[in-house]
Amino acid sequence: MDTAGLNGWHVMRWFELLVEHYAGAELHDKLNSFDESWDCEAVVQAFEKYKEWVDAGYFPDGFLTLDPNDTIMAMGSGECAMDLQGQWYDGQLIQNELDVNEYGVFAFPSGESNRMSSFAEMTQFNKNLSDEELDACVKFMDYYYSDDSVDQYGEYYNLPLPKQGKKAPADQVNVDGMLETSNTNGTFTITDQAFPTEVADVLFNAQDAVANGEMTAEEAAANIQKAIEEYQAK
Fold this sequence. Notes:
By secondary structure, the protein is mostly helical.
């Protein structure tokens, strides 16, 4: 399984699916909204399974210091069998001159629904823009996501907005199926968007510490809950 631990977020994608598996959809949502304690059996089980995978060598050697932007190298070479990515990955494969038809997508078996994680991608504008400059920026984004622009330049990130009847570029063969699976199975908010930075950092540190044998699963779960309570007390 392909992953890279630099900055924490890519390993988090695996860990959050383990939480989904052991907690189930309802409890996982309550954990992410801080309505239930992370110091619970489901989170402990998720950390224990993650540690089991680390010890079994399921992740690349030295993965905690690898750059997640480079995971495509292990995928492209056949060193790793799977990677946790999103609808942008077909474009990445094409950009790296890999045959996108040799790759497929499936939902991680994370529970009864097999929900997929998702996140909102937003465009931010400088608050000091004049009204005229802001209007120009908005017009550019309208152009960037227009059907004509996507048809001409949609090899990479500017996929069409998820509107009724719109399809991904024909050569990005996995995108539509991924979106259909998300619609069928449902989604949950990816953890680093559900968490404030102060809590996400504690999770990332726990992932590294558990992998290195410097922290137990029980300690990791307790530390995350402590960070949540400290954040809520501010």
